[in-house]
Amino acid sequence: MGKVTFHLGGTYIGGVFMERLFKKIDELKDEIVKSTQEICRIKSVEGEAKEGKPFGEGVAEALDYALKLSERLGFKTVNLDGYVGYAEYGDGEDYVAVLGHLDVVPEGDGWMYPPYGAQIHDGKIYARGTMDDKGPIIAALYGLYAIKELGIKLDRRVRIIFGTNEETGSKDIEYYNRFEKPPVLGFTPDAEFPLIFAEKGLTVFDIVKDFSRRPENIKIEYVKGGQRVNMVPDYCEAKLEGDIEYIQSVIFKHLEETGDKVEFEVTGNEIVIKVYGVSAHGSTPELGENAVMKMMNLLGKMNFDESDVKNFIDFLNKYVGFETDGRSFGVYLEDEPSGKLSFNLGTIDLNEKGVRVGLNLRYPVTYSLEDMMNPFNERIKEYGIRVENFEHQAPLYFSKEHELIKKLMKVYEDYVGERCEPIAIGGEPTQRRCLI
Ligand SMILES: [Zn+2]
């Protein structure tokens, strides 16, 4: 990795007084706001693929807008078959990238102002995509424009990359990497200030077990809980058949012991049990209360016959329980930059035939996938449990001492006037830590 060209430590950048750069940006303010409003008015949610528009009409329109604007500002532009585009300035073999994205997730309900109106109220633009990520990438484009207009000399080319599929699979960057060489350095103006320097390794997968031996005394028709694997489930429901008086007595005792929120309905010799928890994001499972594990805790107190079902419930209670760091499971890891491993049990679907549990584990940045999965596989092996639908995203990590991190942090501190620590996340931003 070579040296970066910006010298923002002092008052000069590329030989130009910083004040001049700030003044230029101020002059451009109205134009930046207008361009941000215009691009936010395009509903760029992924849609049906068409010729040259792999992510649909809206996304293609937003990409077209960004590239036309870039051309108008005097940049060289490239559109890679509608998958991704970029604007570029400067000369040299290597380039530095600013990577953002123009696609947005569906707007949902509950807006104070129209989600694609980009109206300004109290000095803020209201629209889907203003912060994630159209606003930031348009700001970056104008930042480069200011540099160009002031004639600041750069040692490398700078490329503003307009991604179009960040929210639904990043197929844009997959395409980009097939045709373009990677930048020598870069950053993404997305997520959180001042800077994210570490993001945990992320895995999503199911553990599955088929049942051959079922309990005779109490039948479990189903256990269902959780909607998404990257959320802490706040609801779990089970239907049992058996000695209702006994089952009820276990529930009442459990309520006394735990104070959990549990409801049940009895019909004949069947009982539907509903357990409530508190939802949280899968990257911070310690902030939630897992309804599935509360259900397992309750079911674990019932005297099921020796069976695969009973063994599986015991397995979850023994090795997962209410822990959110994988300690009892044997996969606990921790490091200084990014903290503890997070272990979220997100979904369960259990019936007479078998069980499928959705897990979302995130491991600290200085470890490898094997450091987590080897002990994991060791643990499940003897229980006849298997892993399915495995997805993995490797960690992202730069040392706080890395030149890129130090420079970007310095720019933030000098410009915003507050001293902050860069942030490590588990795939979702956590709180900022600022001194001033
Ligand atoms: Zn984003």
Structure description:
- By secondary structure, the chain is an alpha+beta fold.
- Helix 2 packs antiparallel against helix 4 (134-149) and helix 7 (291-299) packs across helix 8 (308-319).
- It has an 8-stranded antiparallel sheet with strand order 14-15-13-12-18-19-11-20. Strands 3-4-8-5-9 form a 5-stranded mixed sheet, with helices on both faces.
- The chain is built from 10 helices and 24 strands.
- Residues 1-10 have low confidence and may be disordered.
- Zinc ion (ZN) binds next to loops.
Structure described in brief:
This protein is an alpha+beta fold.
Rounded to the nearest angstrom, the radius of gyration is 26 Å
Number of helices: 10
CATH class of the largest domain: Alpha Beta
- Give the assembly state of these chains: single chain
| Structural class label | alpha+beta
| Low-confidence parts | 1-10
Domain count: 2
Strand tally is 24
Distance between the termini: 33 Å
Residue-averaged pLDDT = 92
* Biggest sheet layout: 8 strands, antiparallel
Strand-helix topology:
Blueprint: E1 12-13, E2 16-17, H1 18-27, H2 29-40, H3 57-72, E3 76-80, E4 84-89, E5 95-101, E6 119-121, E7 124-126, H4 134-149, E8 157-163, H5 171-179, E9 185-187, E10 196-199, E11 201-210, E12 219-225, E13 235-241, H6 244-258, E14 261-267, E15 270-276, H7 291-299, H8 308-319, E16 334-335, E17 339-340, E18 342-351, E19 354-363, H9 369-381, E20 386-393, E21 396-397, H10 403-416, E22 420-421, E23 423-425, E24 433-434
Parallel strand pairs: 5-8, 5-9, 10-23
Antiparallel strand pairs: 1-2, 3-4, 4-8, 6-7, 10-21, 11-19, 11-20, 12-13, 12-18, 13-15, 14-15, 16-17, 18-19, 22-24
Helix pairs in contact: 2-4, 7-8
Bound molecules: zinc ion (ZN).
The site of zinc ion (ZN) has 5 residues, from loops.
